[in-house]
Amino acid sequence: MDHRLKKLSIILATIALFCTITFTAAYAADPLPSWNDGKTKSAIVNFVTEVTKVKGPSFVPQAERIATFDNDGTLWLEQPMYVQMAFTLDRVRVLAPLHPEWKEIEPYKSIIAGDLSAVLAGGTKEQFELVMATHAGMTPAEFEEIGKQWLGATEDARFKRRYTQLTYQPMLELLAYLRDNGFKTYMVTGGGIEFVRAFCEKCYGIPPEQIIGSSIKTKFDLPDGKATLLRLPEIDFIADRDGKPEAINRIIGRRPIAAFGNSDGDLQMLQWTDAGPRPHFCLYVHHTDAVREYAYDRTSKIGRLDKGLDEAAKHGWTVVDMKNDWKTIFPPSTK
Amino acid sequence: MDHRLKKLSIILATIALFCTITFTAAYAADPLPSWNDGKTKSAIVNFVTEVTKVKGPSFVPQAERIATFDNDGTLWLEQPMYVQMAFTLDRVRVLAPLHPEWKEIEPYKSIIAGDLSAVLAGGTKEQFELVMATHAGMTPAEFEEIGKQWLGATEDARFKRRYTQLTYQPMLELLAYLRDNGFKTYMVTGGGIEFVRAFCEKCYGIPPEQIIGSSIKTKFDLPDGKATLLRLPEIDFIADRDGKPEAINRIIGRRPIAAFGNSDGDLQMLQWTDAGPRPHFCLYVHHTDAVREYAYDRTSKIGRLDKGLDEAAKHGWTVVDMKNDWKTIFPPSTK
Question: What is the pLDDT of residues B37-61, one digit of tens each?
Fold first, then answer.
């Protein structure tokens, strides 16, 4: 009896699978509707088609289909300043009453007075110090909640939208398309990992355990016998430039077969992917649309794409021309 | 037509699912055949049953079902020395001809002469220095290959088996049982991450991207224009004690609901799990079987379980009595 029941269930499951496949193949809609037809879209579709073709010469087993995405400028906007920097500056203003000494110390003094020019012109080191002064002293869960609250309450000045509504619709489609084809999608961002966790799964469908980012140290403690982690004002790791392939190797332990970035900070991740033994795909988002978003590359202070453009041309990587390749930039507004 | 086809496939899939569920429920074999019946086995099965019961009071959504496992002494044997230490000592002997200076320097001199007592009696710091001297200077892929070769060629002196055959059969069943119930199983080991990657997926079904371990630094470089990572003789992170919850928080970003260890080095991981807001489960493997494996706890140099035993009693964690709870220790030999 049990044997016949098992056999029946296998037969029925096979029939159901066959019907589903037939239906899907015959009636599937374009998976990338916000991408204009052309060589960029074709390059993406051809790559995915080839690596998923069982018994094809470029087939890659599902477990090896790792795709890594930068965030700022690749999945959401990064101008006129990184979203996390806008958050950081707001945190300085919120925390100012607890730090009366800040009134006399730069860059806090200027930020509190509403003058952001000095801090935005400053170097990465100064900016990291600000991040640490404002992102430490609480548990990871408390920090994530602060990030969520801020993202829910803050709008970009130009687009009058929350930042979580300023993701790139074509890239959201690309993420889903890759996952539908058995890829595991990872974020690899220079941004702070716990700030990114406040929105990453909801915005991109990327779960917390598939986010690699910069981090500050935490300290394990047992106040009142209950285990906690406290965020310390001390840099742990910066997942930018060389740090991207280093972290990918340490944390994922597989080399990506597809990598997506938009700046010279992503170059090493693309080079690492490009040097892999399997078929692979490297793509740069080139910001060419000053009307619908921003246009910037070789000389931009934020998201500079200079050496990366030359390397892309040299190695035949795909470069998205945002203005011509993307039908829409942002998702439909949910306001 | 398409609509009817879709409807048909849904109906057939539902029937197949129903048959499969009926079959599974009625005829499923014991998922933990190497565990003796008793309170340990019941505690495991009850926990898994409760957190997977949809609409039950202890239900935990699948995405949150994270289980973390220590390796040495929890999933495979760790006596009379950590397997990675045996590997390290062999590496010293293999590399000795390239390092004539070692003949005059301790602990290399003694190791080369076959006297391991000093190094095994030494502290963690000395042992890490040995690891770094022997594990650096190559790419991660080259190192993993060296590890694989060694594991394939080396036998444990007492059991006359390769180390990959000295995993614990009851724990292999537990890993599979958890995964069958929607858990994502992670390894969180103080061992070197790339040594563990040489066997982890094959032995335990845990893929590289679900391994957290200790690491040495790597350096990104572009010799001849081709991206490479080179392993440096420099500690990056030690995933032991406080380092376990810290790394879990940074890399997984979710708190485990089940944690498995065997020593005081795993205590903080269990405490972190135990302090979580969801239903959770903490388990210690207690080595009580000197005949079939080893018996050690409070005073052992390797895998000491002292404070952990007290904490387990205090918090009601499950403690495996290896001698009485496990029908078999190791998997059937494949020799």
Answer: 999 999 999 999 999 999 999 999 9
Cross-strand partners of B281:
B258
CB A285 within 8 A of CB A320: yes
Query: What number is the average pLDDT over the span B171-184?
Result: 98
pLDDT tens for A69-114 read 999 999 999 999 999 999 999 999 999 999 999 999 989 999 999 9
Mean pLDDT on A244-249: 98
Question: Which of B286, B274, B82 lies closest to B170 in space, CA to CA?
Answer: B286
Nearest to A229 among B12, B13, B249 (CB): B249
Read off φ and ψ for residue B321, nearest 5 degrees.
-95, 95
What percentage of chain B has pLDDT greater than the value 90? Answer: 84
Give, in order, the Cα–Cα distances in Å from B214 to each of A77, B129, B151, B193, B292: 35, 13, 19, 6, 30
In angstroms, the CA A301 to CA A297 distance is 9
To test the contact with chain B by mutation, choose from A2, A4, A7, A9 the residue with the greatest count of B C-beta atoms within 10 A, namely A9
- Chain A residue numbers with beta carbons less than 8 Å from the beta carbon of B9 are 16, 19-20, 23
Q: Is the bond preceding A80 in cis, omega lying within 30 degrees of 0? A: yes
Instruction: Report CB contact under 8 Å: A9, B20.
Output: yes
- Model pLDDT, residue B260: 99
pLDDT band at B26 (very low <50, low <70, confident <90, very high): very low
Distance CA A110, CA A102 (A): 10
Length of chain A: 335
pLDDT digits (tens, 9 = 90+) for B280-315: 999 999 999 999 999 999 999 999 999 999 999 999
Nearest to A246 among B194, B229, B246 (CB): B229
A275/B2 CB distance under 8 A: no
Q: Which of B19, B226, B232, B241 would best serve as a mutation to test chain A binding (most A beta carbons within 10 A)?
A: B19
B2 pLDDT more than 60: no
Tell me which chain B residues have a C-beta less than 8 angstroms from the C-beta of A208.
252-254
Q: What pLDDT, on the 0 to 100 scale, is given for residue A26? A: 45
- The per-residue pLDDT of chain A, averaged, comes to 92
Given an 8 Å threshold on Cβ–Cβ distance, is B275 in contact with A219?
no
Question: In one letter, which amino acid is B244?
Answer: K
Q: Counting Cβ atoms within 10 Å, is residue B271 exposed (0-12), middle (13-18) or buried (19+)? A: buried
The residue that leads in pLDDT, B171 or A1, is B171
Average pLDDT score, chain B = 92
Q: Cβ B12–A12 below 8 Å, yes or no? A: yes
Q: Is the ipTM of this complex over 0.95?
A: no
Distance from CA of A298 to the nearest CA of B (A): 22
Chain B residue whose CA is closest to A20: B9
Q: Determine, for residues A245 and B253 on separate chains, whether the beta-carbon distance falls below 8 Å.
A: no
Contacts of B3 (CB under 8 A, 6+ apart): none
The percent helix, strand, coil of chain A (3-state, each to 5) is 50, 20, 35
For B106, residues 6+ apart whose C-beta sits below 8 A from its C-beta are B118
Contact B246 A220 (CB under 8 A): yes
Contact A170, A32 (CB under 8 A): yes
**Measured in Å, how far apart are chain A's first and last C-alpha atoms?**
58
CA distance linking residue A272 with residue B216, whole number of Å: 19
Domains of chain A, CATH where assigned: 32-80+161-325 (3.40.50.1000), 83-153 (no CATH)
